[in-house]
Amino acid sequence: MSRPLNADIDLDALRHNYRLARGLAPHSRTLAVLKADGYGHGAIACARALDGLAPAFAVASLEEAASLRMAGITTPIVLMEGIFEASELGDVEALNLWMAVHSDWQVEALLAYRPAHPIPVWLKVDSGMHRLGFAPHRAEAVWARLAAASAQACDLHLMSHFATADAMEPGYFHQQMAVLSKLAERLDAPLCLANSPATLAWPQAYGAWNRPGVMLYGSDPLEASNATSRQLRPVMTLRSAIIAVQTLAAGEPVGYGGRWKAPRPSRIAVVAGGYGDGYDRHAADGTPVLVAGRRAALVGKVSMDMLTVDITDIPEADIGSEVVLWGRAATGEVLSVDEVARHCDTISYTLLTGVLPRVPRRYHGGAD
Ligand SMILES: *Cc1c(COP(=O)(O)O)cnc(C)c1O
């Protein structure tokens, strides 16, 4: 018998979530963000499952794009941060990629380059995130230079990123939107603005393109979920099993440092799965886990290969019982990665991208 921990990837759920995103914005084209190895799900498998459905993909680096091309993916791919050095332009062209430009040096490199065909370019504007992009007052001049460089750049779009589209307090989102609307009008530019939270909650951000990421994987990024976000389906199920059961007397501790002590005579399940697999060591006592489809509480510190769960109230649970750390149990019961993340003082993005290579990915569904 092999170690029972696996990441089961439901590619039908991925397609469902993609269709949900697309259905919200029927007048936009919706690309699928596949950076960080498809948020930990396996970018190649996700790209294949979405091929023919998504008109484009987006990644964070040339290497990520190259691995998709090597796997035979021919769908357009956007480099959301563009190039990291001028020497990458040859590969951008050879791999037939689209690229964001966010800095003067990228514009200079592009304009000094002689591609056989112009490269589709998305001009990134900093509308308030203050991470990447040109200040709004400079966007017009840069746009004009790119527009005039018809041998180097084509298909210009304006791109920007929201800092607070997930928040219940909409003030800053509206501020960013006001900057962008003004710019778009002056430049008559097609837009690509909406990440997952904006796709779910802010139709006024929809542009020629939308670019959701995490929602495609079934995580709800909104501070307050809405009717659509509640229809998302988890794509990854981090599934394991009980490998041992401890019977403790009241007062006996569990695990490193004895952080948790049994308040009553307790049955404790030892589960294959720990921080050496990417399960967050910050998981607090009480972090939910599904044991045989029923909610139970993680107790004691997570160790590298194992974690411990109080199954006192689940008498039918025993060695070999299914344990779902997040995702969908065999019974159909769902434990959202967002809920687990809250108990780890983090967000779903870190948990999903943090599942380490030691955990086998098993793919299900995904065909037409
Ligand atoms: C990661 C990323 C996205 C997708 O964000 P989600 O919150 O996962 O939808 C969109 N745009 C940019 C620039 C990104 O880096």
From TrEMBL:
Keywords: Isomerase, Pyridoxal phosphate
Enzyme Commission number: 5.1.1.1
Modified residues (N6-(pyridoxal phosphate)lysine): K35
Pathway: Amino-acid biosynthesis; D-alanine biosynthesis; D-alanine from L-alanine: step 1/1
GO molecular function: alanine racemase activity; pyridoxal phosphate binding
Sequence ranges assigned to domain Alanine racemase C-terminal in this UniProt record: 235-364
Top class in the EC scheme: isomerase
Residues noted as binding substrate in the record, renumbered to the chain: R131, M304
GO BP terms in the entry: D-alanine biosynthetic process
InterPro entries: Ala_racemase (IPR000821), Ala_racemase/Decarboxylase_C (IPR009006), Ala_racemase_C (IPR011079), Ala_racemase_N (IPR001608), Ala_racemase_pyridoxalP-BS (IPR020622), PLP-binding_barrel (IPR029066)
Reactions this protein catalyses: L-alanine = D-alanine
Named cofactor requirement(s): pyridoxal 5'-phosphate
One cellular-component annotation, GO: cytosol
Catalytic residue list: K35, Y256
Transmembrane segments: none
Family: Belongs to the alanine racemase family.
Protein's job: Catalyzes the interconversion of L-alanine and D-alanine. May also act on other amino acids.
Name this polypeptide is given: Alanine racemase
Source species of the chain: Halomonas korlensis
